[in-house]
Amino acid sequence: MVEPLLSVSDLKVHYPIRGGLFGRPVGYVKAVDGIDISIAPGESVALVGESGCGKSTLGAAILGMTRPTAGEIRFDGKPVIHGEASRARNLSRDIQIVFQDPASALNPKLSIGESIAEPLAIHGVGTAAERKTRVEELLGLVGLHAGHATRKPNAFSGGQRQRIVIARALALNPKLLILDEPVSALDVSIRSQILNLLLDLQKHFGLSYLFISHDLSVVRHFADRVAVMYLGHIVETGATQDVFANPVHPYTEALLSAVPLPDPMAQRTRRRIILKGDLPSPANPPKGCKFVTRCPLAQSVCHERQPELRRVAHAHASACHLRA
Amino acid sequence: MAATTATTPRPTKRSIPWTVLPFAAILVALLLIAILAPLVAPMDPNTQNLLARLKAPGFQARGMTYFLGSDELGRDVLSRLIYGARVSLLVAFASVTLSGIFGTVVGMIAAFYRGWTETLIMRLVDIVLSVPAILLAIITVAVLGPSFANVVIVLSMTRWPRYARVAYGQTLSVANMPYVRLSRFMGAGWLRLLSRHILPNIAGALIVVATLEFGLMVLFEAGLSFLGLGVQPPTASWGAMLATGRNYVATAWWIATFPGLALFLLVLSINLIGDHIRDRLDPRGR
Amino acid sequence: MQAGRILGLPPKPETEFPVPAFFLKRIFQAFIAILGVVTLIFFLQRMTGDPVLLLVPQNATREDIEAMRSALGFDRPLITQYWDYLSGILLLDFGRSYVQNEPVWTLIASRLPYTLMLAGGALTVAFGLGIPLGVTMAVRRGRAEAKAMMGLVLAGQSMPTFWSAILMIMVFAVWLGWLPPSGARDWQSLIMPSIVLGLLSMATFARVSRTAVLDELEKDYVRTGRAKGLPMLRIVMRHLLRNAAIPVVTVAALEIANLLAGAVIVETVFAWPGLGQLTVQAISARDFMLVQGVVLLGATTAIVLNLIADILYSLIDPRIRMEGSA
Amino acid sequence: MSHPLLSVDELRVTIGGQPVVDGISFDIAQGEILSLVGESGCGKSMTAFSVMGLLPRAARLSGGRVMLDGTELSALTETELQALRGNELAMIFQEPVASLNPLMKIGRQIEESLIVHRGLEGREARRAAIDMLAEVGIPEPEIRAGQYPFELSGGMCQRAMIAMALICRPRLLIADEPTTALDVTIQAQILDLMKKLRDETGTAILLITHDMGVVAEMADRVAVMYAGRVIETAPVDALFARQEHPYTRLLLKTIPRLDGEPKETLPVIEGLVPDIGQWPEGCRFSPRCPLANDACRKAVPPLASRRDIGSTACWHAEQVGAI
Questions:
Q1: pLDDT for C157-213, tens place per residue?
Q2: What DSSP string runs through A84-113?
Q3: Helix, strand, coil distribution of chain C in percent, nearest 5
Q4: C147: Cβ–Cβ under 8 A, 6 or more apart, which residues?
């Protein structure tokens, strides 16, 4: 097996809940609670789940924007130590992020050329003239004109801003991009443009992607492997094809069946699973299996013990007591 | 793929509306008068003429016209008004600058370092803000003694928390914007973060506070002078002129009326322009 | 909330905050703030000058000064003096005015009712005019009458109290002779000072309530109310005003405190025998214990008003009550 | 066929003189779900607001008619409209939590419609509100009625909004992106609920969305909007089987599908969604359309009948299948 580019093992991110007269922690939100994940060079791995499942926290923890409570993150075989400035600088040469909302990802007061050149400037790469050339090159790469460099972000549409953000992320030739819902803020007719651009760039530069999304259709289209998260845990993981064709975990199954297909005939004949109730609060998760409050199959064992992630087929694992 | 031309969402550039324009003119005129006081004032503001005491506007003596009358020591009200503008504007400008810079720096430090620095600074801000500013100014001037420098120091000392609070809140929200988080992640130093990302994005809100404060500072200075705690005689100051005028309400209405009117027009102009700036920065009219 | 999750920020914890703990926390904070003010005033005064030098006659000898110093206890260590001062304040002992030779608290107590009367009058003007003006300006925004009101508010905001006071005396006392120019003889004496003092606060209340109502008008729940077929008046009265009250309450606390400070000038102009006049007299007589007492009272009032505002919020807004976060 | 419940005819809305809705027409029959689909800025929400008479201050209804069962809504006074809103016509919104008054208990907010439109008071109104909460599938409705919106999840708040909208049994419910802010499993619950309630009460629904999946799941008929105009209408099955406007066709082809081929380059619609006020001459889709010729760039194609079941606004409707 190829040496993974990124490997995360038993990662935990817990936030204290403060209360009382003196703001002491009275409990913890276990946003990410023991997650293992790895990404090979050139691979796209998707993290799927609903809001509050911890997928974005995981992304932020890998970047060192959030301090992990426990666990290890290794990049290129070397452990990532958070909180060390020099280490963070080096890490940002290899890992970059694309945010969901391109409007807030760009400083409104800087020209887009300045924004794209910022990673180069921070890392002291090249002379001013070289950086200018690089910015023009990057703009061309994402389908914009070199002449756009002097304009401010508000002169661009959402899709164009996302291109600019992608150009900035590529400035330092990173190996891994964390894509945090990169198309969900965009118009439908613009989404495929951006998805194609990302796929092209991956082919071209051999990039690895960690793709964070709640949109299963996009994930299915985009990712090689997928990890389904629920309340801070991975409940199912495997090759995208396998997981989508044969979902094992009842949550994955429900999630897939909840996605409305753009095809009324298929939609009518499809078996729909409608889950009862809401996602429990991450501050107060149920005992045992985290999905037990909404699971249509739940048995008494599910209330007592939390299931381990177990292999169900080649490279396909699921955390369910009942289906394995 | 070729991109189409970039579009500008907000193409309309609003000009200064006619309601604000005359007041902008007044403000500019007052500024010019203050700067050029020795050139525009018809008389020396401190020359007394006991033969020309309490004369009504238009009174003439020794070939000079007292356009706005004379005060109880026979000084020309117009000339004192002109020199008084200097004091008002200078005090306001100096204290706004001092308190603005200090408050902004302190507020940004609190937001930037968090932890106990934040707690300490913001508690201090709360405490100073909870004491009514004019009261704090009064006690401090009373202790330090009244003088031009002391008035500026006192006003700055009592007003900086306003800026600190705004700078703190704005910095916190800007620092949480993805572009700042990203820049931090890449290892940008504090100088870059502040100068390229944070300051340019919080400047607007601070300018709005500063314009409002400017008007308030003019009023505060006049208030302190009115109570005899401001710039000391014989230096001309509108507040002190009003205090004198109060004693002659029944006999010499002009002594109090003109400085009051000048003060009112100046503050009104500043407030109107401040409102206009605020509307431009935030069209919802916060 | 949504954005927070996307950025990986911690989700807002949903702690059930017991109501008494919330109040206790606020009261505790207010207490700390008052302590801070007392400390600030005490050290500010001691650092900026020797209080004894201000008390003794100009020609006093060194021995006189030292005798005075030990007689008044100023020769003891600063920390002891601070402690005595603190414990005195707890018993409403603000020290003694050496100029008037009376306990500070007695002097304050004799003037307090006048200031309260004036503040009451001014608040009636400020609230009674300011809030309706603000709400009307917001609801009828863009129309001629709203613009005219805004002009009025701006004028009120820009009017120095000492000038409007003088103008009113000129017009209503000197020329028309309708009202007494100064003093506190009867209820008519209260009219002019109340209006003058209330005018500035009126402008503030009008602006804040206008902004608050404008902000609320843009909220989605107003649209829901309209979609339900509610008349605008019902939406404003039943839904909007309560939501808009929150920022107004905050500013009201600050503004009442400012109003008390403004009383210094207004009372001076109208010779109204309240705390403001007492303060000015104390300053010109260099009566520092008295000044200190008045400032302390003002600051404490401000802090207590803020505390009341906080408690009011939590009564208005169940979210604060239950989550314990402001 | 009997006359439609709602009929929108050549509706025009302008903001500061710029058209945002530019002459659109559609009908909704009794009990029908019509989906108005389009991207941001195409005017679909403005259309909904003009039906409700709830246009934002800056917007003007500058032409056309809106008829509800023979009553011309666009000619009514504000007071007359108020009597209809929440009664005959109801609306729910994208952000359910923000759409509820944060300082009023859920139950009281639902009762309010009954108080205003039915004159119910006190216990009767309270009872009806709790029954309605139960009807929209809120467990423990007595307890929920006494809670504030912040104590409920987004999905619960949207159920409460639906309860509020339907309590007076309106004939038309307008739902503006009702599930966009919700998670996909909650979306499934809400869509299921809306469909069930339509079947039970016969309330027609104008469903505004940008999600073709939601359209396929919910709609009986579809009207596709682009840049302020309706460019295609058809019954849902016919539309998904065969698109006669290049925009509809491309839109369906560009979206990644759960049953599609992974990792392939998706077909794209070139260019950008035009901003309001910067709509091109002629057919507004022409700058992005692979079939466009000079005729398209000059003349606006009319919304023409399409095999008696729908209509299309394209000069090249016959060639669209080839894209």
A1: 898 988 898 888 888 888 888 888 877 777 888 999 999 999 888 999 999 999 999
A2: -HHHHHHHHHHEEEE-S-TTTTS-TTS-HH
A3: 75, 0, 20
A4: none
Summarize pLDDT for D10-69 with one digit per residue, the tens.
999 999 888 999 999 999 999 999 999 999 889 999 999 999 999 988 899 999 999 998
Cα distance between residue D25 and residue B116, in whole Å: 63
Buried b / exposed e over D180-199, threshold 16 CB at 10 Å, is ebbbbbbbbbbbbbbeebbe
- Tell me, what's the pLDDT at C48? 61
Q: Could you give the CA distance from residue B269 to residue D32 in angstroms, rounded to a whole number? A: 60
Is residue C220 scored above 90 in pLDDT?
yes
Band of pLDDT at residue A20, cut at 50, 70 and 90? low
pLDDT at residue D193 above 50?
A: yes
Question: Which domains, and CATH codes, for chain D?
Answer: 4-219 (3.40.50.300), 245-322 (no CATH)
Q: In whole angstroms, what is the distance from residue B260 CA to residue B88 CA?
A: 12
> Under a CB-based contact definition with an 8 Å cutoff, are residues B274 and B213 in contact?
no
Strand order in the sheet with D6-15: D18-28, D6-15, D59-68, D71-72
> In this structure, what are the phi and psi dihedrals at residue D287, rounded to the nearest 5 degrees?
-65, -20
Interface test with D, best of C216, C228, C241, C322 (most D CBs within 10 A): C228
Q: Using CA atoms, how far apart are residues C316 and C78, in angstroms rounded to an integer?
A: 45
Sheet holding D33-37, edge to edge: D89-92, D172-176, D204-209, D33-37, D221-226, D229-235, D310-312, D304-306
- Whether residue A174 has pLDDT greater than 80: yes
pLDDT, tens digit (0-9, with 9 covering 90-100), for A124-155? 998 999 999 999 999 999 999 998 999 999 99
Indicate yes or no: CB of B242 within 8 angstroms of CB of C163. Answer: yes
Q: What is the pLDDT confidence band of residue A86, given thresholds at 50, 70 and 90?
A: low
Q: Which residues of A touch C2 (CB under 8 A)?
A: 51
- What would the pLDDT profile of C9-33 be if each residue is shown by its tens digit? 344 444 444 556 677 878 888 888 8
- Cα–Cα distance, D81 to A109 (Å, whole number): 45
Interchain proximity B139–C48, CB inside 8 Å: no
Q: How far is A168 from chain D (nearest CA, A)?
A: 21
Chain C neighbors (3+ CB pairs < 8 Å): A, B, D
* Sequence ranges of the domains in chain A: 245-323
Query: At C232, which amino acid appears?
Result: M
Q: For residue D8, what are the β-bridge partners?
A: D26, D66
Q: Cβ separation of C6 and A29 shorter than 8 Å?
A: no
Closest CA to D138 of D204, D202, D189: D189
- The pTM assigned to this predicted structure is 0.86
- Average pLDDT over chain B reads 83
Contacts of A31 in chain C (CB under 8 A): 8, 10-11
**Chain D neighbours, 3+ Cβ pairs < 8 A:** A, B, C
Neighbours of C187 (CB within 10 A): 9
**Token pair in block for residue A66:** 């959030």
| Disruptive mutation site among D265, D278, D284, D288 for chain B (greatest number of B CBs within 10 Å) | D278
Name the residue with higher pLDDT: C52 or B25.
Answer: B25
**CATH fold of B89-285:** MetI-like fold (1.10.3720)
Residue D81 to residue D170: CA distance in whole angstroms: 14
Distance CA C173, CA C176 (A): 6
For C229, which of D82, D103, D151 is closest by C-beta distance? D82
Q: What is the dihedral of CA D308, D313, D319, D322, to 10 degrees?
A: -100
Would you place residue A22 in the very low, low, confident or very high pLDDT band (cuts 50, 70, 90)? Answer: low
The whole-angstrom distance between C313's CA and the closest CA on chain D is 11
Q: Which residue has the higher pLDDT, C285 or A160?
A: A160
